Amino acid sequence: xxxxxIITLSGMLGSGKSTVAKLLAKRLGYEYxxxxxxxxxxxxxxxxxxxxxxxxxxxxxxxxxxxxxVFRHFNSVPNxxxxxxxxxxxxxxxxxxxxxxxxxTSVAGERIFNDKKRTGENTYQTVQDAIDVLIERRALEVxxxxxxxxxDIDNDENFDYIIDTTNLTPEEITEKIIRKFKLEQPxxx
Length: 189
Description:
By secondary structure, the protein is an alpha/beta fold. It has helices at residues 17-28, 35-46, 50-57, 61-72, 89-92, 105-114, 127-149, 170-181; strands spanning 6-11, 31-34, 82-85, 97-102, 161-164. It has one domain (6-181): Rossmann fold, CATH 3.40.50.300. Helices cover 49% and strands 13% of the residues. The protein has a five-stranded parallel beta sheet with strand order 2-3-1-4-5.
């Protein structure tokens, strides 16, 4: 059995996926990769918001190919300890520990609305605006991923562990994952 671990975190927008992935990677000494960062960068280069990029991806297959290609190579990279923050990484890296984070939609909207560090996102006037955009983005992604990859990112059977983050801190979520899979920092050689 290999000593490396690839952990994929999927989840609803505003579930804390990126924050938890970064905390988990830091705590374990793993590398961190993010589809969100790649997506925001592509949107920025094209002069779009992330919602507009998702809408454009409906007719431009190069967008998904560019984003997803980043993660496919992990299947053939030996001895990597990686945390991947991506809604589809569980699909592209089937040997990973597959974790899904859920959250109440109203809490997700509040988190997104109040997160001033997000770049390439819409500037929301109200929490309800953020909720509406989150719902629309999720619907576009679910439909597109079903069409392109024949995978339902909302099907809980795709995951090894599902956590509702609505009432948990990122630190509590990180600790649950470490305990569940008995993870520890890799030994230095």
